[in-house]
Amino acid sequence: MPQSTPLVWEDPTFRSIPYQVHVDPDLFALEHDRIFRGPFWHYLGLETEIKNPGDFITTYVGTIPVVLTRGIDGELNAFVNRCAHRGAKVVRELRGNCKVHTCIYHQWSYDQTGKLKGVPYRRGINGNGGYPETFNPEDHGLEVLRVESYAGVVFGTFAHEIEAVPDFMGPDVKRRFDKLCGRPLRVTGYQRQSVRGNWKLYVENLKDCYHGALLHAFNSKFGMFRTSQRGSTRMAKDGLHCILTTYGKRDENIGDTYKNISTYRSELQLEDPQVVEYFEEHDDGMVSTVLSLFPTMVLAQIANHLGLRHIRPKSVDEFELVWINFDYEDDSDERRNIRRKQGNLLGPGGYLSMEDAEALEIVHKTLEVGGGKGSAYVEMGGAEIGDQDHLVTEAPVRGFWRGYCKAMSIPVAESAAAKKGAGA
Amino acid sequence: MTAATLERGSDAVTPEIERKIQRLNDNCAHYLDNQLLDEWTELFLEDGRYIVHPRECRDAGLEGYWLYLDSRKMMRDRAVSLKKVNIYDIHYERRFVSNIVVTGYKDSAWLVRANYMIIHTDNEGHSKLYSAGEYADQIVEESGCFSFRERIVIVDTFTVPTLLSTPI
Asked: Which of A15, A42, B11, B136, by CA, is between 20 and 30 Å from A28?
């Protein structure tokens, strides 16, 4: 019997977001079925992390532990990291290379595709014990995911029938992947942080253009960006995916600002501006872009810093954020060094990003009060939900919740007042 | 080179040197615990390096730094930004540095390693382990004063609880 949905969405304009969505354990359990085992592609890793046959990395789809491997035939595979015998985690390392994955508990062993290859004492010992004749190893493999790769980024899904990855992305998102991942990537490192908050608070944060310059004051206080900077929001897949982009004029990029520091006044000045040294990388003047691909992946370029982020829900109250930073194999040493120094801007301790975890934690802490009663109010930009050519809006947040309700089959109420508001 | 072989070498570690290295570490912990970030930067050479390198990346052979500050100016910028710009959790910090071992002497610098542990206490008085790991230092003496030419923090706690503000 399908699970009932523990929520009716009362505001069809999505300006009002019930706090319940971030604190209800029943909703979190339902997300496991309808999102993480549902008709969506999930980020698993980068091809460059598993270049050689036998290479593997471990990751999660929602809370489900998953192993991504490259088979001896060079093909990509992914399986649930849970032994078919007693449920132990089969692969315990974060990453590595091996021919066979053997569970430590009773040494059931699996190949890179998750097929069961070895069962100790299967025929018993000296005629005693063993498995019945009817035991067929083919029935006891690890649960496999369908796997597809696009622009070197590997995705997996439990919904074997859904559309291909590029169709899941849509044209705008696909173009952004082409732009940032169109050349061979080189992982430079990982950063991880755990945040005591619901994972969707971070998803909202990625679509929230309102908070950027207010919460993260580094750029404005040190004079890197001007308020005239252009921006845009683009949504895809019913608002679930979102791209926020800022553009700078040629004479307004952060490197030039600091080159002409004597003519540019700001509240504070960096003594050593290496951290904001910048080279123009895109013909269209794009300075930064944050693409959130539903449900839990982010692809971002901030100035010249390149990275993916993977949101890993741990419970209704906690998620981990893994930053996978990269540069390009054909980058010059100079460019590599610039990206490395800009690494100080991003991650759990980055000048531009450290505030988010604090903001999300103090939000989550108070949402729990009264079991999630009450609601958030997001009306910047009115009730508009469509794409915008500025960043003074909360439209992508509203768009996300509309898409989320559809993905989760959450009924959306219609009220006279809401109808009036929507029509205004 | 081990400490044991050093003691017999020409660059022998004297109790005086060990005391000064200990004091440098104590001062460093004291400054950071008390948010005396300008004083902290003074413990480094002008072209000193302060790098935070998570164990995960180190083990995987990846550079993957959390912080990469290769001048005292960059460290001062971090100090200014933390004091005037960035917003982070309100908390107290307490560092415990132990097992300080001089492991060698190279290019006029003592090679020193130490364990560290940092406890954070939030503004409602709850304490928890924030970070554990190792300091790998190059320490030089200039006119009787010991300074860091390089401090690489190798962080075992490579999933940061919440965020990273004050240098580790």
From this structure: A15
Test A354 with B160 for CB contact under 8 angstroms: no
3-class SS at A125?
strand
Of A95, A274, A341, the CB nearest to B60: A95
For residue B135, give how far its alpha carbon lies from the nearest alpha carbon of chain A (Å): 18
What is the crossing angle of helices A199-207 and A354-367, to 10°?
A: 130
CA angle A5, A3, A168 (to 5 degrees): 75
Entry field: residues in chain B: 168
CB contact under 8 A, B159 and A274: no
Distance between CA atoms of A240 and A253, rounded to whole angstroms? 30
Please report the pLDDT score of residue A424 as a whole number: 41
The amino acid at A50: I
When computed from its CA atoms, the radius of gyration of chain A, rounded to whole angstroms, is 24
CA A116/CA A109 separation, integer angstroms: 6
Report the residue of A272, A276, A314 to disrupt the B interface, i.e. the one with the largest count of B CBs within 10 Å. A272
Cβ contacts below 8 Å, chain A against chain B, sum to: 119
Residue type present at position A13: T
DSSP-assigned letters across all residues of A293-304: ETTTEEEEEETT
Angstrom distance (rounded) from CA A146 to CA B135 = 44
Write out pLDDT tens, residues A379-400.
Answer: 988 888 888 888 888 999 999 9
What's the token pair of residue A12? Answer: 């069809």
Q: What is the ipTM of this complex?
A: 0.93
Report percent pLDDT > 70 for chain B.
93
A94 interfacial to chain B (CB closer than 8 Å): yes
pTM for the whole structure: 0.93
Which tens digits make up the pLDDT trace of A109-122? 999 999 999 999 99
Which contacts qualify for B77-80: CB closer than 8 Å, 24 or more apart?
Answer: B77/A270, B77/A271, B77/A272, B77/A275, B78/A344, B78/B37, B78/B167, B79/B37, B79/B38, B79/B40, B79/B41, B80/A268
**Residue A396 — φ and ψ, nearest 5°?**
-65, -30
For residue A421, name the pLDDT band (cuts at 50, 70, 90): low
Residue with the two structure tokens 């062993």: A109
